Amino acid sequence: MKAIGHVENLPIGDERSLFDFECPVPEPGERDLLVRVEAVAVNPRDVKSRKALRGTPEQPLIIGYDASGIVEKVGRGVTLFQPGDAVFYAGVLDRPGSNAQFQLVDERIVGRKPATLDHAMSASLPLTSLTAYEMLFDRLEVDVPRPALPGRSILILGGAGGVPSMAIQLAREAGLTVLATASRPESEAWVRDLGAHHVVDHSQPLDTQIRALGFETVDYVFSSHTSAKAWAEISRIITPQGRFGLIDDPDPLDLRPYKSKSVSFHWEAMFTRPMQGTPDMVRQHEILNEIARMVDAGEIRATSTRNLGAINAANLRAAHASIEGGHTIGKIVLSGF
Q: Is 50 helix (H, G, I), strand (E, B) or coil?
């Protein structure tokens, strides 16, 4: 089968940073689906993996997480799908990825593809929608009434990013007043179109802007990346007993400014359930099916903005380069081999 992989951690401008090669079609294990990949999306996680993980000349590393495709074959213990089913999923870090014609994936982290979308648009959904959904409903529990949080407002940082773009839609559907941050006119237009009630500029003081909108505090905060400046500003604007959700914060964070408010902190890592083999791993199958239902009902939409064409090394390098540039809005997808 055709695949795209890498051996060394090279700059994306180097043709060997991602290259085309051929390898055997794998055989499914007990709970595995063998999926014929029809489309993929590229995320910041793909870039991190390319820079941090390595293959060998004998076995180049295949990365890629978001995918949509058709079930080709199933393992003996599979009960949720059968050959011919159209599916979408986000894969895992410790198995060969979606940048190949065929991929093995555990059925418990796979959902039925939205019926109203093609494979390319469907591929833009899994990683970001799973991360946003798990954070909002499994970590922050925004659907659980809390007398201490009467306003039901949420601040979503970096609103034009992939995960925040899904979080804005899901939070609004859950009945929250959504404040999202954006610093460029095109980013502001994007987050407003997704349903944000208010937009604030994260290059300016957040607390003063939010108070100017008439909010004394915000009940929830959803951050995919938190600067030291924003960290201090949010401590002044979050509701006492509020909830703060974090995804990726490479610098050490001082929790002490939040102590007097008894703020709780919640980490979200989309790969936790499948890679730790948690008893509720099938929850991701359930979430993806719910995402598909919401898309088909018109409650939320996919966030693909660019299709770079066929799934090959040259186009994947272009996608990685765009993400490394830091100004991507929405998701980049590729379809077909």
A: helix
| 134 contacts 167 by C-beta, under 8 angstroms | no
Rg of the chain over all Cα atoms, to the nearest angstrom: 20
Domain with CATH 3.40.50.720 in the chain: 129-267
- Provide the Cα torsion 59, 64, 67, 69; round to 10°: -20
Cα atoms in the Cβ-side hemisphere of radius 13 Å centred on 252? 2
* Dihedral sign of CA atoms 174, 207, 242, 283 in order: positive
Residues of the chain with CATH 3.90.180.10: 2-125+280-335
**What tens digit of pLDDT does each residue of 95-137 get?**
999 999 999 999 999 999 999 999 999 999 999 999 999 999 9
Q: Does domain 129-267 have CATH number 3.40.190.10?
A: no
* Closest to 216 (Cα-Cα) out of 252, 246, 261: 261
pTM of the predicted model as reported, rounded to 2 decimal places: 0.95
User: Could you name the CATH architecture of 2-125+280-335?
Assistant: Alpha-Beta Complex (3.90)
Whether 31 and 107 have beta carbons less than 8 Å apart is answered as yes
Per DSSP, helices labelled H in the chain are 44-52, 119-123, 126-133, 162-173, 185-194, 206-212, 228-237, 272-276, 283-296, 313-325
pLDDT, tens digit, 9 for 90 and up, residues 144-183: 888 878 779 999 999 989 999 999 999 999 999 999 999 8
